[in-house]
User: Fold this.
Amino acid sequence: GKTDKLLVTVNPILLTSIVVLPETMSLFVRESDTFEVTAYYNNDTTKNVTNENDCVYSSSDDSVAEVVSDPFAIAQGWVKAFKAGTATITATYTEGGVIKTDEILVTVSAVGLDYIEVEPDEVTLRTDLLTGISQQLEVTATYSDGFTSDITSDCDYVSNDSSIAIVDDNGWILAKGLGTTTITVTYATDWVVVVPVTVEVVPYSFTNTQPVNDLAVGQLVTTVAEDGDWMVWTFDFPVEEFTGDGNLNVGLIIALDGEGQGPAFQI
Assistant:
């Protein structure tokens, strides 16, 4: 019989390239979008390798955008935008010792701010002047996509009259004296809200047996206590509350120290 030979050459299937689509992506802050990574081989076949363990991703600026996991994206990847700017997402796929890369250019635009809201929009501090009374303002920004954000610590605060109320960098208002003033809240220069502030007294009564022969109703009196100078106001005492012996039996007296607060001082 006769024999013959057939030479068969088997070429390995090799990875030749990967392609990420889309090539570019435009997002607003907080938006996400999908992409796919396709591997191409020397036998003209392709394979989706987006979520293969050997396909890894990096961002040139992950504060702008990065690839995030999504349990519902079986054959797709997700890019999440965080702040305005540009970032390049690089996909790197390794198979059979061959490494291939491709990129997506991601452009992130800022979302427009619709308005800011300050709560409460009007402040009334009722104080007995025994302790400092305070109230915090809370500021919320609402954006054109409906997203809201607490921006309280990002605002600037200014009191129009620090003798009545002061305010710190976190929006805490502290009563310093009686009267009305305003707190101006400013965010990013262009957004301004003015909050009216009223500081009023919660009066209290006590019995006083010391002589007040020269004290008239509503009179402003200056006296000296052990801790220093005090100003004492009297409010609307009926005449009959002054007894014949010059003593004040019951009344409403408010005492302030130099800082606008302090315990009541009995005359």
Notes: The chain is about 0% helix and 50% strand. The radius of gyration is 37 Å.
